[in-house]
Design brief:
six-stranded parallel β-sheet, UDP N-Acetylglucosamine Acyltransferase, domain 1, nine-stranded mixed β-sheet, single chain, Spore Coat Polysaccharide Biosynthesis Protein SpsA, Chain A, alpha/beta
């Protein structure tokens, strides 16, 4: 007999991530490397596993090879107690078509639910950077008796126009769910902030199954969880908001409590990396009481030689630094040659920086080469002719490029 409710985790990992191009040129957004040793999907999977949920299906679709391989190699489970973490590609079980939206992804994967027969289903997104104990949200969901509970994070009203926004009454029942409103609603206890949807949901199983079936039969639906499924529950008074502020994670600090970032753009992705490297980081990767699990590289420790130095930076295994590193994040197996200067940049696995090269405010994807005396991020007008430059002035270079 189970002493805890039977919960199935479903992670939605099929999005293209167009705004994060060129980092998503050859991979799904959840597979994009992040923070030296991780991929974006590692954050949601770590939260679910740390919270005690180890039966997890990851629904994939877009350019999913590297994502599938990462899950299989990094998130392997013995299954001794029936646990599993498995990628599930679009299978066309209901006809020759791919997923048409996040709700359709669940509808086409109902066999997973029927096989597992959970009491509740946790449906989380795959591409946000945060810590959260989902078991606390599940407990609140059970306590309220709602059909669906939506995680909401408090953001200033002036910034809420870019999000799906939640209007609720005093007991937490959602009265409106509005996508990117011009006049976001305030929370019941603070008119100057808004509940923005985090894209994390807890469903009572029968309610979710009925909802996606009804949605599939609606020819006018976009088959989207946030755009169609949640508003349907709201219209019936069956949706509840869970305040992310109430979530308590072991080992969290005053600086990183309540941290959540949607890294859907180049600038947001860059800013989230900069959040990692201050003395008191806005997001602390070193919390061993709620660890974020990432790739095991089997590489030797990082090495600094010939006067190589790093300040306010994070350096991954296998790196060899002979130049100067300032306010940057290096993934694994990066080499910075003598005389090179790297400032305010994110370098992904296998990047090589040549002698006397200069790299500033840049994101260099896997295996990018900067030649001796090469420059990137110094002359943005010149960089725009060849590379992607964000609105915030961050230069992003795709995999395997050579910068002369």
């Amino acid at each position: 007999m189970r002493s805890q409710p039977h919960v199935l985790g479903i992670v939605l990992a099929g999005g293209e991530g167009r705004r994060l191009y060129p980092l998503t040129k050859d991979r799904a957004k959840p597979a994009v490397p992040f923070g030296s040793s991780y991929r974006l999907i590692d954050f949601v999977l770590s939260n679910l596993v740390n919270g005690g949920y180890e039966r997890i299906c990851v629904l994939t679709q877009y350019k999913s090879h590297s994502l599938d391989r990462h899950i299989s190699q990094t998130w392997w489970s013995s299954g001794f107690h029936g646990e599993f973490i498995t990628p599930v590609p679009a299978q066309q079980r209901l006809g020759p078509r791919w997923y048409t939206g996040s709700a359709d992804a669940i509808y086409q994967s109902l066999n997973l639910i029927f096989d597992e027969r959970p009491d509740y289903i946790v449906v989380f997104g795959a591409d946000h950077v945060y810590r959260m104990d989902p078991s606390q949200m599940v407990a609140r969901h059970i306590e309220t008796g709602a059909a669906v509970t939506v995680a909401g994070i408090r953001v200033p009203r002036a910034e809420a126009k870019a999000f799906g926004c939640i209007d609720s009454d005093d007991d937490g029942t959602i009265t409106r769910f509005i996508e990117k409103p011009s006049d976001p609603p305030g929370t019941p206890d603070d008119p100057d902030v808004t509940f923005a949807s985090m894209g994390n949901y807890v469903f009572t199983t029968d309610a979710l199954v009925d909802a996606v079936r009804a949605d599939a039969a609606d020819p006018d639906s976009d088959h989207d969880m946030g755009g169609d499924i949640i508003p349907a529950f709201v219209s019936r008074g069956e949706a509840y908001v869970y305040d992310f502020n109430d979530n308590e994670v072991p080992g969290e600090t005053d600086e990183d409590k309540g941290y959540w970032r949607d890294v859907g753009t180049i600038d947001a992705f860059y800013d989230a990396h900069m959040d990692l490297i201050s003395a008191k980081p806005a997001f602390n990767l070193y919390n061993q009481r709620w660890p974020i699990r990432g790739e095991t590289s089997h590489l030797p420790p990082a090495k600094f030689i010939g006067g190589g130095s790093a300040n306010d930076s994070m350096v991954g295994a296998g790196c060899i630094v002979s130049g100067t590193l300032q306010s940057s994040v290096l993934s694994t197996d990066v080499v910075i040659e003598d005389g090179a200067v790297v400032q305010g940049s994110v370098l992904m696995p296998g990047v090589r920086i040549g002698r006397n090269a200069v790299v500033r405010n840049a994101i260099l994807d896997k295996n990018v080469r900067v030649a001796d005396d090469g420059q990137i991020g110094v002359d943005l007008d010149h960089d725009r002719e060849t590379y992607t430059v964000s609105s915030g002035g961050i230069v992003c270079v795709a995999k395997n490029e050579t910068i002369g």
